[in-house]
Amino acid sequence: MDFSDSPEEATFRSDARSWLDANATLRDGSEKAQDHFMARDADEVARARDWQARKAEAGWAGLTWPRAFGGRDATPIEQVIWNQEEGRYAVPPNAFLIGIGLVGPTVMMHGTEAQKAAVLPRALTGEDIWCQLFSEPAAGSDLAGIRTRARRDGDDWVISGQKVWTSGAHYSSHGILLARTDPQVPKHKGLTMFLVDMSDPAIETRPIRQISGGASFNEVFIDDLRVPDSARLGGESEGWKVALTTLMNERFSISVGRASGGARAEELIALATRVERNGRPAIEDGEVRSRIADFVARQRGLEFTSYRVMTSLSRGEAPGEESSIGKLLLGKLRQEMGAFGMELAGTAAGISVKAGDDTARWRNEYLTAPGNRIAGGSDEIQRTIIGERILGLPPDIRVDKSAPFSEL
Amino acid sequence: MDFSDSPEEATFRSDARSWLDANATLRDGSEKAQDHFMARDADEVARARDWQARKAEAGWAGLTWPRAFGGRDATPIEQVIWNQEEGRYAVPPNAFLIGIGLVGPTVMMHGTEAQKAAVLPRALTGEDIWCQLFSEPAAGSDLAGIRTRARRDGDDWVISGQKVWTSGAHYSSHGILLARTDPQVPKHKGLTMFLVDMSDPAIETRPIRQISGGASFNEVFIDDLRVPDSARLGGESEGWKVALTTLMNERFSISVGRASGGARAEELIALATRVERNGRPAIEDGEVRSRIADFVARQRGLEFTSYRVMTSLSRGEAPGEESSIGKLLLGKLRQEMGAFGMELAGTAAGISVKAGDDTARWRNEYLTAPGNRIAGGSDEIQRTIIGERILGLPPDIRVDKSAPFSEL
Amino acid sequence: MNFGFSEEQDTIRETLARMLGDHATLKSAHNRLDGADGFDTATWSVLADGGWLGLAISEAEGGAGMGAVELAILAEEIGRSLAAVPYLPALCMAVPALQSAGTQDQRTSLLPGIAKGRTIIATALAEGGGLAPDTVSAKVVQDRLSGQKAPVTFGAEATHALVAATDEEGTPRLYLADLSGSGVTIGALDPIDRTRPAARIDFDNAPVELLPGSDPAAIRRLLDGAAVLAAFEQIGLAERALALTTDYAGERHAFGRAIGGFQAVKHRLADMFAKIELARSNAFFGAWALASGDSRLPEAAAVARLTALDAVQFATEESIQLHGGIGFTWAADPHLFLRRGWQLKAELGTAAIWRERLLGHLATPLRAAS
Amino acid sequence: MNFGFSEEQDTIRETLARMLGDHATLKSAHNRLDGADGFDTATWSVLADGGWLGLAISEAEGGAGMGAVELAILAEEIGRSLAAVPYLPALCMAVPALQSAGTQDQRTSLLPGIAKGRTIIATALAEGGGLAPDTVSAKVVQDRLSGQKAPVTFGAEATHALVAATDEEGTPRLYLADLSGSGVTIGALDPIDRTRPAARIDFDNAPVELLPGSDPAAIRRLLDGAAVLAAFEQIGLAERALALTTDYAGERHAFGRAIGGFQAVKHRLADMFAKIELARSNAFFGAWALASGDSRLPEAAAVARLTALDAVQFATEESIQLHGGIGFTWAADPHLFLRRGWQLKAELGTAAIWRERLLGHLATPLRAAS
């Protein structure tokens, strides 16, 4: 066991750092908290595009893409190293994660030459920003249940329906859209994938406000959007297969991505040192100590789990079984820490009584965490995945696999 | 809201107390801990029989049975009051609970006149002791999955198979036995109920040792037991319906029965006051206080829940929805309290270091509790019952309801 | 044995449920979250007109002369409807305080107005963290109060406040302050539940009147009674959260089935149910102890509050979870209940406080820091 | 980044797994529970013959010269097999103590015998509740030890004991006692896990030898290392409990299906898996910190132990639960794992102790009682 880079990894890291040093400035802690990949406004989008163009020019964009498509043919661990290094600098959010991490590889595998030429270079340089139009109000955990319809009309397709939970849709130029083209066959079989232009007036995007007050997602309404057949990605009724490529790359992007934000358990120590519980410093209360120790132990475990994932990547292997637990355990941990932080504030749990107290921070943590337990595969879906794919338990009984979608 | 008896209830209580005063002595705390309904040895069985005979003679046995069968036509709340009052006296365990509470009502509803005459009087006086031969190794939560076969042979039936979890089988004179008589129909349809003589040499009883070291249950092996058709209780292939009568009465017996034993949460306060944690009296540790307060609150909740059940009975209503939660919550509470009691003993959790310390008590509590979470309907079955019967959620998908048992 | 409600009480519940269901809708709660007035004066008027605000005030003083069990029923229905009304501070705390510790004059001058809905008395016991009588730094000298109280629920909407402050001997007592009087500055706080507006009140030599019967023991009794009644409000809201999640699980389909048919969902809902019923059993005992003046009230109040806090948090968090994506959107209902649950935690103190109150009775109090 | 095992280490694991699987069967564990000898001398001999007992002893002192990571692998496989051998006290505590705090003479005279399996050193740190160096009342005066130690795992089977006792200045130190010497009385205790026999040892002026390098800090380091290695043993046993429950859930049918297809069962097993993998990640970091001498060892040891304790308790309790009726019978396997889990908790202290060790590093230590 060894935490150091291999010689090849060390070289890559040093190259990355040299370029970053010359092109960006290190964070100094004064930066506003920001999401790692969501831009908040037009200005941030513009700055993100500019930074992406510079990376692309220097060969630091699309790291894991093949050189033939302008990438660097980098290994997954090199992507991790880049993410670590770039994370040390004050750079704009990476609004291109979906384009480069998900759409690019899907187009490379399933696209026509014309599609590759149209999509890949502009995704790499950040000229185009992509979003993923998969989930629907009635198709969340059960993605294959989507109802957005695409009907043939001459050489065109006409698409209508509603998408939801679309990150970044409001500033994206393009979207990869899964639609049902044949409702008379079983649900997984009648789907087709399309590449669409988000600026088309047939597409309307509305932000979704979350319980935390933020709005990272959108609803997208599609009303008779007309696209040529050349916008179809992959074969007709082959959409599920194409979507699986996208989803596999999504999982990979997450496993090499920057660790999720959120509070550190140690911050609760600081809070408990400042506040009182039952007339004494809260940090002297055995229950406070017990809860915090438990949080620290679980958070460390998640951190070290990511080291195990990186070890697999470093060895050129796929992330192992351990990679599945992070998603399951993180949301609940954040939710419990948020609740505990709010409670430590005393009677006034949840009400900010003094300006500058910690209530707002922990309240936001608490109200953000439920999203972690749901988005990207709920806790319940994760447990099913672990149970079936890792432990090999019998699958849930599926009543919907063979019936025509129209009869479900 | 009022905890006092109604005038009728008060009269009943006073009558019961007068008779008990004249026929038994009050507990003085020196009695050995004993199970409320399991006799431990032949001597205890003999004393239990004697006590039952005296109760029967005076009209205090089979309280809720109709007078026509020697009962008192008592209301459920009167049964509760009797149980409360009898519980104050040093009397032998009630080994007749199954006979009077379960078998009697089932025979009254489904038996022939000859069966009623043969079974009821002797069950009432304690001459016969009954056990319930339902569960099998492959039929626990899924009771209808039983495999014990009863085959017609002329006018007789020949029964072979294995039963398990049979309380009191080793001292019972008779058993009510569910067997499969037709494997060619769906599982619930091919069952028939029989009344059997436990002294038949074709029946062998072996105690099952539990992880706590105790043995309250038995395995019962039945090897070509021959019974006449007059031993059949209810129609051929009507066994499931007959069994449901028994099970309904079992639930009722439990809801009016004496509260389950087990440790009181307050005992943990006493323990925590005696032992140290991290160099201080454990009772001063916030986590210890927090855990104990939680245990007290949950245990009180279960106790007061039983008051709600009694209120329904007192009003002549069936126990309401609240009665279903006790079974679900009790086992886990006992398991947690047992574990915590062991941990309070410090490093030596689970090892009795000093004679007379509390380790053995809490270890026994901890090792007994898993049985509470499983026997009589596991936690998981209870949750399904609450979800489906109380909350009205859709049933689990059943693949076994219509296929012939032989093809499952 | 009678550990349930009478037919008259069941009728009261039905009437209230209908009335609150009509007036205090979830839609109106959403509007308040989005900036509408945090106090639902319309519902408060309806309650006043129906005579509900004087439920536990004697007939001589303008009320209906009922008791704690009826107050508990009202509390549960308020919880179920999430009505944005100052029920808990005004009716479950201020009224009993006046009744048990006030003068005849104070009662006569205030109780009729409360029953009519004209007088609203907020309760100012907290000072950031901790609860009176254990944590009080506001002081009264010569009938003048100085100090800061926060959070005070409905502090900006109330006409009066019942304030915990120390008297000239340093003993915590309760005082009545006219909030329109001099020396009172009220600032809005940002509560997690905007249907329960909260304020900070600064008193600077504000004239106040002592409730002569109030001493630390009386304040504790007051909190015990309030905790029991709040437990009913908590149970009402948790049960509504369970009900709407059960409905959703029966309607929402995934993988070709209603999601309530999946054990992961079904068993979670069963766990919610079990926690709520456990809390209800404790709350019943608390209501009985409160109504009958039983000496076990402190213990009963603590266990009622502890199990209610647990039931509410579990039910509301898992209500969001089982709603899936829709559950964590602002426009959906589940977070309304989560917010009210936290607000009720804030108003009377977290489990940490009530565990100590329980153990203080069963075992020894925690030793003070040396 | 290399946070896993090398190929050589994987080979060691496979060899050990095969060997222990052949010799330390669950059937033999059942026999011990039913009264057979609690020490599996046959497996101990096989380990000695294979050179495994000297794994982390230098080649010069009769061992194989490997390190902490290899010890961790052995620990995990011991846990998985439930082998009834004094691995933890003798190899993970006594050997490192001799190596770090013993004299050259002590090492030369004892380590080769340990590697050969002839010398077995028990570790006597506990005195009922609490762990050395924080709780020590045994005393050494002029090289003579008096006091009582309990529980001492394999105390009755060991040739020597490493005993925590205070020196003449009152400082906790470690001493080596020959258990066949004078002044030593050994009594059997009743452990929850009879495959892990425990004893009480009374020392009455028993001659002992100081490990000169031992001081309170050294004792703490020793415990940290042992906690990391024990975490691997805990993970091994939890994983075996998960595996046998997963197998059972795949075979056992109810309602016409393997019960592992029901989400109530499937999701519980997934939770077991997640807790075990979380503990494993912490244990990996602990092993690295132990092997590399990293200063974060105390923190790493504490988090490894805390998550391992949690994973073991959850996995073993739910293993019994998911086995249904058969699960709480004596003859079934699940309780073997539950018992070993508690035994490992007893040997190195409960979560309460390790939470304080963790917070002592991250925050302030808990103030002593005044």
TrEMBL record, chains A, B:
<keyword id="KW-0560">Oxidoreductase</keyword>
<dbReference type="Pfam" id="PF00441">
    <property type="entry name" value="Acyl-CoA_dh_1"/>
</dbReference>
<dbReference type="InterPro" id="IPR013786">
    <property type="entry name" value="AcylCoA_DH/ox_N"/>
</dbReference>
<feature type="domain" description="Acyl-CoA dehydrogenase/oxidase N-terminal">
    <location>
        <begin position="37"/>
        <end position="127"/>
    </location>
</feature>
<feature type="domain" description="Acyl-CoA oxidase/dehydrogenase middle">
    <location>
        <begin position="131"/>
        <end position="224"/>
    </location>
</feature>
<dbReference type="Pfam" id="PF02771">
    <property type="entry name" value="Acyl-CoA_dh_N"/>
</dbReference>
<feature type="domain" description="Acyl-CoA dehydrogenase/oxidase C-terminal">
    <location>
        <begin position="238"/>
        <end position="391"/>
    </location>
</feature>
<dbReference type="InterPro" id="IPR036250">
    <property type="entry name" value="AcylCo_DH-like_C"/>
</dbReference>
<dbReference type="InterPro" id="IPR009100">
    <property type="entry name" value="AcylCoA_DH/oxidase_NM_dom_sf"/>
</dbReference>
<dbReference type="InterPro" id="IPR037069">
    <property type="entry name" value="AcylCoA_DH/ox_N_sf"/>
</dbReference>
<dbReference type="GO" id="GO:0050660">
    <property type="term" value="F:flavin adenine dinucleotide binding"/>
</dbReference>
<dbReference type="GO" id="GO:0016627">
    <property type="term" value="F:oxidoreductase activity, acting on the CH-CH group of donors"/>
</dbReference>
<dbReference type="InterPro" id="IPR006091">
    <property type="entry name" value="Acyl-CoA_Oxase/DH_mid-dom"/>
</dbReference>
<dbReference type="InterPro" id="IPR009075">
    <property type="entry name" value="AcylCo_DH/oxidase_C"/>
</dbReference>
<dbReference type="InterPro" id="IPR052161">
    <property type="entry name" value="Mycobact_Acyl-CoA_DH"/>
</dbReference>
<protein>
    <submittedName>
        <fullName>Acyl-CoA dehydrogenase</fullName>
    </submittedName>
</protein>
<dbReference type="InterPro" id="IPR046373">
    <property type="entry name" value="Acyl-CoA_Oxase/DH_mid-dom_sf"/>
</dbReference>
<dbReference type="GO" id="GO:0005886">
    <property type="term" value="C:plasma membrane"/>
</dbReference>
<comment type="similarity">
    <text>Belongs to the acyl-CoA dehydrogenase family.</text>
</comment>
<keyword id="KW-0274">FAD</keyword>
<keyword id="KW-0285">Flavoprotein</keyword>
<dbReference type="Pfam" id="PF02770">
    <property type="entry name" value="Acyl-CoA_dh_M"/>
</dbReference>
UniProtKB/TrEMBL annotation, chains C, D:
<dbReference type="InterPro" id="IPR036250">
    <property type="entry name" value="AcylCo_DH-like_C"/>
</dbReference>
<dbReference type="InterPro" id="IPR013786">
    <property type="entry name" value="AcylCoA_DH/ox_N"/>
</dbReference>
<dbReference type="GO" id="GO:0050660">
    <property type="term" value="F:flavin adenine dinucleotide binding"/>
</dbReference>
<dbReference type="InterPro" id="IPR037069">
    <property type="entry name" value="AcylCoA_DH/ox_N_sf"/>
</dbReference>
<dbReference type="Pfam" id="PF02771">
    <property type="entry name" value="Acyl-CoA_dh_N"/>
</dbReference>
<comment type="similarity">
    <text>Belongs to the acyl-CoA dehydrogenase family.</text>
</comment>
<dbReference type="Pfam" id="PF00441">
    <property type="entry name" value="Acyl-CoA_dh_1"/>
</dbReference>
<feature type="domain" description="Acyl-CoA dehydrogenase/oxidase N-terminal">
    <location>
        <begin position="6"/>
        <end position="117"/>
    </location>
</feature>
<feature type="domain" description="Acyl-CoA dehydrogenase/oxidase C-terminal">
    <location>
        <begin position="221"/>
        <end position="349"/>
    </location>
</feature>
<protein>
    <submittedName>
        <fullName>Acyl-CoA dehydrogenase</fullName>
    </submittedName>
</protein>
<keyword id="KW-0274">FAD</keyword>
<dbReference type="InterPro" id="IPR046373">
    <property type="entry name" value="Acyl-CoA_Oxase/DH_mid-dom_sf"/>
</dbReference>
<dbReference type="InterPro" id="IPR009100">
    <property type="entry name" value="AcylCoA_DH/oxidase_NM_dom_sf"/>
</dbReference>
<keyword id="KW-0285">Flavoprotein</keyword>
<dbReference type="GO" id="GO:0003995">
    <property type="term" value="F:acyl-CoA dehydrogenase activity"/>
</dbReference>
<dbReference type="InterPro" id="IPR009075">
    <property type="entry name" value="AcylCo_DH/oxidase_C"/>
</dbReference>
<keyword id="KW-0560">Oxidoreductase</keyword>
